[in-house]
Amino acid sequence: MDSYWVQFKTPFLCFAGFSGVGKTTLLEKLILRFSADATRVGYYKHDAHRFSMDKQGKDTERCFKAGAGIIAINDPRHFAVVAHDAFKQQTITHALEQCDCILIEGYKKSPYDKIVFLDDKGQMPIPEDSENIKAVIHQGVPSANSALQVPQFHRDSIDEIYAFVRDLFRARSAPLFGGVFIGGQSKRMGRPKFSLTYNGTSEAERMAGLLQEFCEKTCFSSRSDLDTESLDHLQGIERINDEHIGMGPVGGLATLMGRYPDRAWLIVACDMPLLTRESFETIIRQRDPLRYGTCYVQKGRLGSEPMCAIYEPKFISPLYKAMSRRELSLKRIINELPFQEVGIAPDSRSHFMNANTPDEYEYARTRREQENEIE
């Protein structure tokens, strides 16, 4: 099995066994279940023999034989690609990374996580001490080896197998880090927005305190030239200076994800003073670690809210691709990808306002003081 699968950020699982044991039938049923649950599932077939996906004499077959490295064909409903091995890694990873999870048929000798099918006599297709066997599928005769300490399912127990595979994928969710973005310019305010205070506390400090409740680690994302001495008293918060200068939040997020590529990031801007603890509780509760991320959305033109959102590790790939074409809007990048969407209730829309002007700051400050008096 190709080594690049080690670095693949979309979770995958191999289904291995001899021919005729029901692998494809089971996978078909699992795909139906995942699809019914609105999960974008990918299927990858490893064929140990030569295969053909084209018809002799057709245009694509003739051009492929003539030496084209990659052939693509599409109609209004779908497309297909046939390519030489030299194109395999880029083609496979670019397509499959957009799925939420991947079911692989084959690769029984690979070192990766796998579910193994027994034959009708209960015999294993690989040694029982092979690494990363997560479960066994039998046809009515389970394995009699007591040393095989993994779940065993009858191949017709679709509900149980689906729940096991789904939970296995979700258990691979990355630990959550938090990032407070404090480096934005603020000429209209006359001072950095992170230093604006509400009820005697800067918003940067309040946001950091909230993220520390939910995240394994919390960081400040900042410009390198920003004076943050007023935040130095805060304990356990790492300051990470933007490495991608002049690219706004896109550059800041790319820096965070590049520093800790195996972590998911819950980010928040320091100029959203009406966000509440419940705002973070809700998005974490509804997080889908199989998507590129989870974000709040509003109806109408306002769309997604990129600055109170969770970005999963695999978001780093489309993020860097967007940067390479100077796409500096996180909202537009999100809109091109499958994100888990969390609706904003009409009476909560004001919680997501930005305090970008003195008037907006005054409104938010007054409202926060009133809420503090009620509490």
Q: What does it look like?
A:
The chain is an alpha/beta fold and 375 residues long. It folds into 2 domains: 3-170, 3-Layer(aba) Sandwich (Rossmann fold), CATH 3.40.50.300; 176-374, Spore Coat Polysaccharide Biosynthesis Protein SpsA, Chain A, CATH 3.90.550.10. The chain is built from 10 helices and 17 strands. The chain has helices at residues 23-36, 59-66, 88-96, 158-170, 203-214, 248-259, 277-285, 316-324, 330-335, 358-374, and strands spanning 12-16, 41-45, 70-74, 79-83, 101-105, 114-117, 133-138, 152-154, 176-181, 197-198, 201-202, 217-222, 237-241, 264-269, 293-298, 303-311, 340-343. It has a 7-stranded mixed beta sheet, sandwiched between helices. Strands 2-5-1-6-7-8 form a 6-stranded parallel beta sheet, covered by helices on one side. It has a two-stranded antiparallel ribbon with strand order 3-4. The radius of gyration is 25 Å and the shape is elongated. The chain starts with 11 loop residues before the first strand and ends with a helix. The mean pLDDT is 89.
Q: What can be said about the biggest beta sheet? A: 7 strands, mixed
CA-atom Rg in angstroms:
25 Å
Shape: elongated
Low-confidence stretches: none
Taken as a percent bin, the fraction of beta residues is 15-25%
Q: What spatial order of strands do you see in the largest sheet?
A: 13-12-9-14-16-15-17
CATH class category name of the largest domain: Alpha Beta
CATH topology annotation of the largest domain: Spore Coat Polysaccharide Biosynthesis Protein SpsA, Chain A
Q: Could you state the order of secondary-structure elements as H and E?
A: EHEHEEHEEEEHEEEHEEHEHEEHHEH
So, the CATH homologous superfamily of the largest domain? Spore Coat Polysaccharide Biosynthesis Protein SpsA, Chain A
Category from helices, strands and their pairing: alpha/beta
Q: Tell me the domain tally.
A: 2
The end-to-end distance, rounded to whole angstroms, is 59 Å
Mean pLDDT, to the nearest integer, reads: 89
* Helix fraction by DSSP (H/I, runs of at least 4): 25-40%
Q: Which CATH architecture of the largest domain would you pick?
A: Alpha-Beta Complex
Quick one: how many beta strands?
Answer: 17
